[in-house]
């Protein structure tokens, strides 16, 4: 039986050849105004404004420290403050610019994305690829189904082909993916349009999977749309994006700003609320200056394949991991290489039909951050490379500082504590100047001066939240999607308390990750845990946050003993660390998040008015048929089904490439062990080796069914019985 004759791409889908002439046209026909801007003055305006604002704050802080009396420790403290305050100012300016851009259009009812010029031409053949690694199989194929049906409703299905590119290492899940693919193709008539490919060796992780696809089949397609395992995109927006690429042939990558959805726990719902409320505003500010030198975030984006294949092959970094070796965060680098070759990278942040899921707990978020932290810090090498556009280096630097800010903040707090301790224990009296530079204009006591610095910092932190609320006030229809202005304000207050408590916890996590990197400990590639499930257990929370709690207790005692003012100044940081264990557990639970949802708080448009694609996704997940036969015996899993079930065996065998390894004596010995002892004595690597060989799988299937029960392992006897029972019934 060969149900997968249509499972491989057509024979003419060979690798791209002769792409040396791939260059963006100098003058594209009829460019959209959105794609015809000059970024130099915009970049100067944004970063200049942030510089002026940060200079004012740094002068105020320098004056405060001068009144206290400068010394070596306070000079270092001032340097750390300048770096952190500048980053804070830059974030505020991005929010302010985004607000100024969006507010007039929000008052007119919305901020629509650009339209491509009308065209009667069909969309070029486009590949939509899902890259998966040990993911929830039902969720992956439900998301693919939602996108497939959405494009079908647009009448453009003939222009798209779909791929599931699997790097899954679990043998059982591998077989489950194959059967889920068959079921989906049978349901939607997708044979010859939906393809599944499993790599034997997951070299270079996700970027290697994409590179392998491009080398093998990239020559068949004009564009590639990259999706993560949790991605969902609206067919209308996919069609819009491909038409924009056609109308603007200078664009190499067109990136959306995915909205987070599917939050079940309190953590997940706060994250998606923040993303939905603040995300577009910050992205508008970012897009204002980056123009054609945008960034690629690795998924939910359209890529022009010819230049991507020619120019975006990733180099190895000098040295070994974690700082050297293979590039972990490939997307930023691919965007920089695309721009270096003359192609443009654009951010289409206005689209509402691009979604992804987020982590459902603090610990899962920290695990993801560890991968991103190592990947971003690797980019330090690229800051000194020749030929990269300065704006791309700014993107890389901002990504690096996003994680370096944590140890810098920790150093700032520790140094502040040391300065207070040194002053208290020295027994010396500081002779304070009557006034500093600020005192020439307005009389402030030393306490008032310090409170002024604190107040300005607080305004910069809270300002973007107020601006986002004002944007909603300008568009009542959109405000209703967030539950109304009052409930949105309640949500903002909850989010502010939440972010205040979680910030010091993430500070310690990120600082530890960076320390591990300097100690040579590289991150492992593990699948992200999706869905809230039962939440974080107390044992797991204590293991993750116990050290943080003990540090907070000791730090609080030291601060209280040193200075009451120091204690109260550190109290927001110390409180977050002290409650980190219960905070981590409670925010991972679905119940608090669902209660707030019933109250209409922390709502997002994806919840209050879900798009058809999200409704279809939920329906598919609620009614998903089992990918594998489900007899009562739980031992009847993926590997067992691939050996016992003739249909599953046939599907699996037809998807494997013949390797000639059936003559290998070691492989035959391994197969005999599996038959005689069951899978318990084999490693996953050994099982994958057997699964990868079609002839061995056929031989094992025949041998188990033809052998007497006494000649096979008890596992296979139970599996055969379990398979027979539903048939007999």
CATH superfamily of the largest domain: Spore Coat Polysaccharide Biosynthesis Protein SpsA, Chain A
CATH architectural group of the largest domain: Alpha-Beta Complex
- What spatial form do the alpha-carbon principal axes imply? globular
Query: Total domains, how many?
Result: 2
Return the CATH class of the largest domain: Alpha Beta
- Summed up, the helix count is 26
Could you tell me the CATH topology label of the largest domain.
Spore Coat Polysaccharide Biosynthesis Protein SpsA, Chain A
The poorly predicted ranges are 1-20
- How would a crystallographer describe the biggest sheet? 7 strands, mixed
Widest beta sheet: strand line-up:
3-2-1-4-8-6-9
- Report the C-alpha radius of gyration, rounded: 29 Å
Distance between the termini: 25 Å
Mean pLDDT: 86
| Strand content range | 5-15%
- Number of beta strands: 10
How much helicity do the residues have? 55-70%
How does the helix and strand content classify structurally? alpha/beta
Q: How is this structure best described in words?
A:
The chain is of the alpha/beta class and 729 residues long. It folds into 2 domains: 434 residues, Spore Coat Polysaccharide Biosynthesis Protein SpsA, Chain A; 91 residues, no CATH class. 59% of the residues lie in helices and 7% in strands. The longest helix has 37 residues. A 7-stranded mixed sheet has the order 3-2-1-4-8-6-9, with helices on both faces. It has a 3-stranded mixed sheet with strand order 5-10-7.
């Amino acid at each position: 039986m060969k149900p997968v004759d249509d499972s491989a791409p057509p024979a003419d889908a060979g690798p791209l050849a002769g792409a040396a002439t791939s260059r963006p046209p100098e003058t594209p026909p009829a460019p959209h105004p959105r794609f015809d801007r000059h970024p130099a003055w915009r970049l100067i305006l944004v970063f200049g404004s942030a510089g002026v604002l940060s200079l004012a704050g740094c002068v105020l802080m320098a004056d405060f420290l001068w009144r206290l009396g400068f010394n070596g420790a306070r000079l270092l403290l001032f340097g750390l403050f300048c770096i952190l305050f500048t980053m804070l100012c830059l974030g505020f300016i991005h929010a302010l610019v985004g607000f100024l851009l969006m507010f007039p259009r929000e008052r007119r009812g919305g901020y629509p994305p650009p339209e491509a010029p009308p065209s009667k031409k069909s969309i070029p053949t486009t590949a939509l690829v899902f890259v998966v690694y040990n993911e929830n199989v039902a969720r992956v194929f439900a998301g693919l189904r939602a996108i497939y049906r959405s494009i079908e409703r647009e009448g453009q299905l003939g222009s798209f082909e779909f791929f599931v590119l699997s790097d899954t290492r679990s043998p059982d899940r591998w077989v489950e993916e194959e059967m889920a693919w068959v079921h989906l193709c049978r349901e939607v008539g997708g044979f010859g349009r939906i393809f599944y490919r499993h790599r034997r060796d997951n070299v270079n992780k996700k970027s290697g999977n994409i590179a392998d696809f491009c080398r093998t089949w990239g020559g068949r397609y004009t564009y590639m749309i990259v999706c993560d395992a949790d991605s969902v995109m609206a067919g209308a927006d996919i069609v819009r994006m491909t038409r924009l690429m056609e109308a603007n042939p200078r664009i190499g990558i067109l990136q959306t700003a995915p909205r987070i959805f599917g939050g079940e726990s309190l953590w997940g719902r706060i994250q998606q609320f923040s993303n939905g409320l603040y995300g577009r505003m910050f992205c508008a500010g970012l897009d204002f200056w980056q123009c054609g030198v945008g960034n690629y975030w690795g998924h939910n984006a359209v890529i022009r394949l010819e230049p991507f294949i020619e120019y975006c092959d990733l180099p190895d970094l000098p040295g070994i991991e974690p700082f050297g070796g293979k590039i972990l965060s490939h997307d930023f680098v691919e965007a920089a290489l695309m721009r270096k070759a003359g192609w443009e990278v654009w951010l289409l942040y206005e689209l509402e039909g691009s979604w992804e899921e987020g982590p459902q707990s603090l610990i899962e978020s920290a695990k993801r951050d560890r991968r991103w932290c190592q990947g971003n810090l690797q980019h330090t090498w690229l800051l000194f490379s020749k030929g990269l556009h300065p704006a791309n280096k700014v993107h890389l630097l901002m990504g690096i500082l996003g994680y370096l800010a944590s140890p810098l903040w920790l150093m700032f707090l520790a140094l502040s504590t040391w300065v207070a301790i040194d002053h208290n224990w020295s027994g010396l009296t500081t002779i304070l100047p009557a006034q500093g530079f600020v005192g020439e204009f307005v009389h402030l006591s030393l306490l008032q001066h310090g409170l002024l610095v604190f107040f300005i910092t607080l305004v910069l932190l809270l300002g973007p939240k107020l601006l986002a609320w004002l944007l909603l006030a300008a568009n009542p229809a959109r405000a209703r999607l967030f539950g109304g202005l009052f409930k949105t304000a309640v949500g903002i207050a909850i989010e502010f308390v939440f972010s205040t408590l979680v910030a010091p916890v993430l500070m310690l996590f990120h600082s530890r990750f960076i320390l591990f990197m300097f100690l040579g400990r590289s991150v492992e590639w593990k699948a992200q845990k999706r869905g809230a499930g039962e939440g974080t257990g107390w044992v797991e929370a204590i293991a993750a946050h116990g050290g943080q709690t003990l540090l907070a207790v000791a730090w609080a005692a030291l601060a209280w003993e040193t200075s009451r003012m120091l204690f109260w100044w550190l109290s927001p940081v110390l409180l977050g660390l002290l409650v980190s264990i219960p905070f981590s557990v409670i925010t991972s639970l679905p119940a608090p998040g669902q209660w707030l949802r019933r109250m209409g708080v922390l709502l997002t448009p994806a919840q209050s008015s879900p798009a058809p694609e999200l409704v279809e996704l939920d329906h598919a997940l609620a009614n998903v048929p089992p990918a594998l036969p489900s007899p009562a015996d739980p031992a009847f899993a993926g590997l067992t089904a691939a050996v016992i079930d003739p249909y599953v065996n046939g599907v699996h065998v037809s998807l494997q490439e013949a390797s000639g390894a059936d003559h290998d004596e070691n492989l035959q010995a391994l197969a005999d062990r599996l038959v005689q002892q069951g899978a318990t004595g084999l490693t996953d690597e050994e099982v994958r080796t057997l699964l990868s060989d079609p002839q061995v799988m056929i031989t094992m299937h025949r041998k188990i069914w033809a052998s007497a029960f006494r000649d096979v392992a008890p596992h296979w006897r139970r599996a055969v019985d379990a398979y027979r029972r539903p048939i007999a019934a």
